Amino acid sequence: MPLTKTNKEEIIQTALSVFRKNGYYNTSMSDLATACGLQKGSFYHYFASKEVLMGEVLKTVQSYLDYAVFSIAKQTDLAPRDRMEKMLLKLGKVLLSQEGGCIVGNTTLEVAAQNVIFKDTLKAIFDSWKNALKIIFMEKYPEGTSNRLAEQSVMEFEGAVMFSQLYQTDQYLKDAFVRTLSKMK
Amino acid sequence: MPLTKTNKEEIIQTALSVFRKNGYYNTSMSDLATACGLQKGSFYHYFASKEVLMGEVLKTVQSYLDYAVFSIAKQTDLAPRDRMEKMLLKLGKVLLSQEGGCIVGNTTLEVAAQNVIFKDTLKAIFDSWKNALKIIFMEKYPEGTSNRLAEQSVMEFEGAVMFSQLYQTDQYLKDAFVRTLSKMK
DNA sequence: GTCTATATCAAGATAGAC
DNA sequence: GTCTATCTTGATATAGAC
């Protein structure tokens, strides 16, 4: 039996998946502790509060997306269309292969509208997302057009994730990907 | 001083605006009672539980949208493009002129994904929404195309509402309306 | 129909033993 | 680092007086 059951990184990953599935307010510290195989009391050894934890979860999501997804937009060794496809496929894996849809969109609608705490991180994530798409679109379109196409794509994805959740099918999101990719044809 | 301070309809309207702004889980019965000018105890005279109340709120939203917005799609005295414009303007008033965005989308992401209770109503609302758009698109496009355009429009609206909320500007939603309307040009 | 008072429970959070 | 025990608060909900 090890002295240490878990660590911050592991907890953040577990918390991410619980928050994504159940939402912020509908997840209790007790839920999180259980999901991590800890007692509630032990949980506070790692995070001072639910708010602090969610803040770190969102920061982790931000780092991961920047590092593993949005960075693809700058891989100029790939043709623009291939870059777009690669990035969308990666994004799809992040958004599709897990229960609960998109933590960024979920949290935006649940918390950000009335609460300032997480707003900056959420905005920054969407800004990076938009910017990554814009970079690729600019290989084919002028800046203004690229910017609008990028914004449109992100909004379409979020709408599609919502529908995919509600109707329990990936089809809406897949279609949204195809539509975005077709703009690079 | 009147014996009766309020009534079910009034409470539903107030609850709608509180739920839209603060979300379902983040709204307490106490919040709702206060917003209605009632004591918590009095509130239960009208609704047995928060869940029942939210159910009725969503049903009311559904009725209102059917009656006041989606019905416009069938006003064949108007030219298709004018019908579309009229419907979108009305929808814009419903979605824009109030704090908290779209209660249908908010509730879908917050509650419907993990909870079956409100899912049927939310689905029915989105189905009617999609269908209203489809009816108008079919004046110009074949059925399959109309269906896809309608789905796309709804998803785009929801994405745009999310952005409008986060960035505190109506522009995203306005742009989405323009894009949809332009498909009827 | 509205009020005050209260029961019950779960949530966030802390203290201190091991 | 983890546990149990506990504090405090706020939430849902009910009872009964007016």
From TrEMBL, chains A, B:
DNA-binding region: 28-47
Superkingdom: Bacteria
GO MF entries: DNA binding
Presence of the UniProt keyword DNA damage in the record: no
Keywords annotated in UniProt: DNA-binding, Transcription, Transcription regulation
Pfam families named among the record's database cross-references: TetR_C_13_2 (PF21993), TetR_N (PF00440)
Domain HTH tetR-type: 5-65
Record's protein name: TetR/AcrR family transcriptional regulator
Species, as recorded: Arcticibacterium luteifluviistationis
